[in-house]
Every structure is written in structure tokens, then in C-alpha cells.
Write a structure and sequence with these properties.
Blueprint (H helix, E strand, L loop, with lengths): L1 E3 L28 E4 L3 E12 L2 E10 L7 E7 L12 H9 L4 E5 L11 H15 L1 H4 L1 E11 L1 H11 L21 E5 L5 H6 L12 H6 L8 H7 L12 E6 L8 H12 L4 E6 L12 H15 L5 E3 L2
Parallel strand pairs: 5-6, 5-7, 7-8, 8-9, 9-10
Antiparallel strand pairs: 1-11, 2-3, 3-4, 4-6
Helix pairs in contact: 2-4
Length: 317
């Protein structure tokens, strides 16, 4: 079996540490730029679409000065059990990459107290479409967009990666003429198969009505919602054309069992998709284990391998 490899980050040198119903939503005027140190500029609260009748916003992080050539983009999706968290911490997540030849974006999405699934993935896909539609404005190469996230954000990043072209998950937030396809995915300890998740010894409490997973599905016991479990699962949509994945999970994660990442990795490989997984001994749900130089370098190497010169087609291992 053969496959096409997209050279995502050509000519980019990375550091060893990487820590509306309308189809034409408008950018919010008169938002001041905020500098992050001296070499980055943050465009705050850029309106990228509409969800549930309100504006959705992102922060865009650009190198300073602006490059004279289009740059790859890295889009960060925050965690928080789909019920909390904000886009603010994503500025730090993308900063190191921006300093080395990227445009970064950190996005908001509707949380479960506002709307159940598929609102969350609709908003994430809208953000990708917005960036592609405005690639020239933000100096982005529209053929080199990567997405990453942790925990619930990892789940959404993985779902963005596997569900390209799935119309029922696109929503109508804007920019319908653009693709939401991405060229690489970094998934940090994201949930995948809720049936397996809530049936894993020690994690059965997540099956209860009111759990984060239950809220995402619209309420009730998770195991009673067979169709919902299938819809939210990134594995459901996997095909051979999906982008490369890097998946990292702590072996001692008390919140999301490592089998969630193992199942995703196995399904990607079975479909012939390039996937790399790393289980960190003793690591929990994020934290110090993920901040080690080794794990940071693993993420960098994943991106650098995509940038390495290679023929258009290579044999699968």
C-alpha cells in the first residue's frame, strides 16, 4: 500500500522545546495588537465564525517582523472536559513554534453548558476554514495547517484530523467554501472511544449522568447513548487519507485511560495512516511528565520529520 505525504513544514527549523450562520463573518474592528515579548505579535479576539448565534473568536500569534513568505500554521485547541477552559493558555502553547517559522492560533469553542456535541467540533472546523479563507491576510500557507490539543482538546484535534469531509460535523458557522482538512495532528491524552473509556475499571464513574462525557453527549448515562458514542469517536471516521498523527499519553493517567490513545493509534495504523504513539511511564493527566525535554523533543521531531525532503510517495512500513 502506498500513500501521499504532504511536506507540512518545509524549510522550518524548530526548537528542541515546544511546550455564524453567515458564510462571511467579520473580523472584530479596533482590537489592539499585544506584543508577547519583542518577537511576537498577538492579534486578540479575531472573530472567525458564528456558533449558536454568537461570535466565536481566536487569538492569532505572528512572528515579528512578518515573514516575506507564507508560513505553516499550528492551531491549538484547549482542554477542560468540554465544559471549561479558555483559549488564553494556547498563546504559550504556540509561541515557540511561531518563533521558528509558524503562525499560531488558539481558538475558542462552545462548551457543554452552552451546547452539546457536535457544536464543539463544528466550531473547531470553522476555525480551520477561516484560517484557510484568510491565508493571504495572515501570511499562512493554506496547505500546511496542523492542529493540536490536550485532553478534551486532544479529542477534538483528533476528530478534526479524521473527519475531513464529514458534512454532518462541519456546521454552518462560516466559510463553507473552504476545507477543514488539516495536514498533521498532535493529540495529547485525548478521549476517543467512550464505550471503552467508561467500561475501564477505575473509570466507570464517567458513565454517570452529569459526567463530562455525558454532558458532551447531551446528558444521561453514556453507555445508553450508542449513537452518540459513535458520533464523537474519532476512530469512527478514520480512512487512509487522514494526516499523520502523534499521540502522547501518560500510563498513569487517572482521568482518561491510556487505552483511549492506544485504540486510536491501532485504528490509524490498521487503516494505513502514519501514526506514532508514546506512553509515558508514571505520567498522569498532563503535568511534569509532558514537560520533559525528551517529550518536547518528540513533538519537535514529529514536525521536523514532516518537513524533511522526501518523495511524493513512500512505501508504508
Amino acid at each position: 500500500m502506498r500513500y501521499l505525504v504532504v511536506s507540512l513544514f518545509a524549510a522550518v527549523i524548530l526548537p528542541s522545546s515546544v511546550d455564524a450562520q453567515s458564510d462571511k463573518p467579520r473580523s472584530r474592528p479596533n482590537i489592539p495588537n499585544q506584543t508577547l515579548q519583542d518577537d511576537l505579535t498577538v492579534l486578540r479576539d479575531v472573530v472567525f465564525g458564528n456558533g449558536g448565534g454568537r461570535d466565536l473568536t481566536m487569538h492569532i500569534v505572528q512572528p515579528k517582523p512578518i515573514s516575506d513568505r507564507p508560513l505553516p500554521a499550528y492551531v491549538w485547541i484547549h482542554g477542560g472536559g468540554w465544559q471549561g477552559g479558555t483559549k488564553e493558555g494556547g498563546i504559550r502553547k504556540v509561541a515557540a513554534l511561531v518563533r521558528n517559522g509558524f503562525v499560531g492560533a488558539t481558538i475558542e469553542y462552545r462548551l457543554t453548558d452552552e451546547a452539546a456535541f457536535p457544536a464543539q467540533i463544528e466550531d473547531c472546523k470553522c476555525a480551520i476554514r477561516y484560517l484557510r479563507a484568510h491565508a493571504a491576510k495572515y501570511n499562512i500557507d493554506p496547505d500546511r495547517i496542523a492542529v493540536g490539543g490536550s485532553s478534551a482538546g486532544g479529542h477534538l484535534a483528533a476528530l478534526v484530523g479524521t473527519s475531513a469531509g464529514v458534512k454532518e460535523l462541519e456546521g454552518n458557522g462560516g466559510w463553507a467554501d473552504q476545507s477543514s482538512r488539516v495536514q498533521a495532528v498532535v493529540d495529547l491524552y485525548g478521549p476517543t472511544d467512550f464505550k471503552q473509556f467508561v467500561s475501564t475499571p477505575g473509570y466507570q464513574g464517567h458513565n454517570k449522568d452529569g459526567s463530562p462525557e455525558s454532558k458532551l453527549l447531551g446528558g444521561g448515562e453514556v453507555l445508553s447513548n450508542t449513537e452518540g458514542i459513535k458520533r464523537v469517536n474519532p476512530i469512527t471516521y478514520i480512512d487512509k487519507d487522514d494526516p499523520p498523527f502523534l499521540i502522547i499519553h501518560g500510563e498513569s493517567d487517572p482521568v482518561v485511560p491510556a487505552n483511549q490513545s492506544q485504540s486510536l493509534h491501532a485504528a490509524l495504523e490498521s487503516a494505513g495512516v502514519r501514526s506514532q504513539i508514546r506512553l509515558i511511564p508514571g505520567a498522569k493527566h498532563g503535568g511534569r511528565g509532558f514537560a520533559s525535554p525528551e517529550i518536547q523533543k518528540l513533538q519537535t521531531t514529529f514536525l521536523m520529520n514532516l518537513a524533511a525532503p522526501q518523495s511524493d510517495t513512500v512505501e508504508r512500513q
